[in-house]
Write a structure and sequence with these properties.
By secondary structure, the chain is an alpha+beta fold. Helices cover 31% and strands 21% of the residues.
């Protein structure tokens, strides 16, 4: 039952225990207990709102940064990744396969701020061998939500 509760909260973190109880058929006190337990066990890490910042006049620049790293003996990529995660510009960091090792999602107020972060901070970390930055020009969908301005494509029905 905890998986069902977590899926509900992942879809909408504002869903109340009472609403979840109605959806799952569990008593409210049991839902509250399971949520508290999930928080204590770090199954729930954070409650999040997806904000459309341009809608309120607050532009943000997003970038995907590929990072090539030399893994450290006994620790692999974890030590370098841990250092990189400390920077506030880094929103997400992933170990990835392919032509690079880490994939970062970074955000800032301007492209210049992101470029400075890469050149002045990221590139100088011991173990970082190279970076490639891709600026996000437009976001269409995030966390399963189609962002404003994206209408579903309506296809004309073909009659045979």
């Amino acid at each position: 039952m905890i998986k069902e509760i977590l899926k509900i909260l992942e879809n909408d973190a504002r869903t109340t225990p009472k609403q979840i109880a109605t959806m799952t058929g569990l008593p409210v006190v049991e839902v509250e207990r399971l949520i508290k337990q999930a928080e204590e066990e770090h199954a729930i890490l954070k409650y999040k709102a997806l904000i459309n910042w341009p809608k309120i006049g607050e532009e943000q620049v997003w970038a995907l940064i590929e990072v090539k790293v030399t893994p450290e003996p006994e620790f692999g990529f974890d030590t370098v990744a841990g250092r990189i995660c400390l920077f506030p510009q880094v929103r997400s960091a992933y170990l990835a396969s392919g032509g690079f090792d880490l994939l970062l999602v970074a955000a800032g107020k301007t492209e210049h701020e992101i470029a400075d972060f890469v050149a002045q901070k990221l590139a100088h970390i011991k173990g970082v061998n190279g970076t490639e930055t891709h600026f996000v020009l437009k976001r269409y969908k995030e966390d399963g939500v189609i962002l404003e301005g994206m209408e579903p494509i309506k296809r004309q029905q073909v009659v045979l």
